[in-house]
Prior knowledge:
Blueprint: E1 11-14, E2 29-35, E3 44-48, E4 53-56, E5 61-63, H1 66-71, E6 80-83, E7 88-96, E8 101-106, E9 111-115, E10 119-120, H2 133-152, H3 155-166, H4 183-202, H5 213-234
Helix pairs in contact: 3-4, 4-5
Amino acid sequence: MDSLELLEGEVVYLNEHAQKFLPNRIGEIAIVDKSLYDSKNFDYRVQFEDSECANVKDYELTTLTKAQKELIKYIYKGNEVLYSPTNQNVIINKVDLVHYKVGINFVEGDSSVVDIDKIKPLEEDEQTQEEGYFESLALEVGKLVDQKQKAYGDSVTKCYEIMKVLLQDYSNNDGTYTIPESLIPIMLLEVRKIDKTNRRFSNPDGDLMSENPYQDDVGYSLLGVRLMEQLHNDK
């Protein structure tokens, strides 16, 4: 295996040979921070996008192709991009150039792992109405809905049944409900939390989209803490 001769500041990514010591970093973009000429165990120190550094062997690094150099102009952690199947703005939270995947965060709080070719820079957010475009878009959206439906386990139906139970104290004899205005923001937040609960019950052996619903649940709980403070201050 030929050794690399990398310059400080050169952009690389961690390849599959890093499985032993840095398995969670495989595919991540890094910058060569320093050559470790005096080390017997490592060849370079690299810095990742989250500013953490690691010592690595040269064969654990791969230099970028011309196409990859174009990609990382907008495919990098923390950048806002366009998720083309649903035409939504998302934030990149992880890049994996080995498997050509990116982790993304949606505005509403959900996260997912998708193919890099589903991501576009925001300046390309100009939809063309070519023949077959909307048909293709509908198929992509339908595919995403199928994936979400399996992951969430028909949360729409189950959430409806749960909310009926929770709102029993506000039900009228004519099938309507009378609720205080202060309950409206709480209801909206609780629906999101019920989504996550249903997702865990639907996939107890592991989330089908390799996500952690508990992590999102924590975020919603923190938003709930702030919501209750705001409601209290408004009184």
